[in-house]
């Protein structure tokens, strides 16, 4: 497994977006870390009972393709690297789909 590398944070959504090589793969909102998901990885997050990032706008709730990071990722560097790599992979897939349109 490859180390995730050097990331940067940018203020957004009332929190911070987490970027690697120009792609947002995570966000921090209300002191909670969320990772980008795709159809495959979303299943893993849901199976662990983790919640999606949601926000309200004009009384309507919106769900983004980011899920709360597993607790063990916050406590262990190897787990953090594993989940961050999954999130970055999901961000790469999403960017690839956008380019094909």
Describe the structure.
By secondary structure, the protein is α+β, with helices and mostly antiparallel strands. The protein has a single domain (8-96), classed as Yope Regulator, Chain: A (2-Layer Sandwich). Helix content is 38%, strand content 38%. The protein has three helices and six strands. The chain has a six-stranded antiparallel β-sheet. The longest helix has 24 residues, at 77-100. It is globular. The termini are far apart.
Q: What is shown here, in short?
A:
The chain has 101 residues and is of the alpha+beta class. It contains three helices and six strands, in the order ββββαββαα. 38% of the residues lie in helices and 38% in strands.
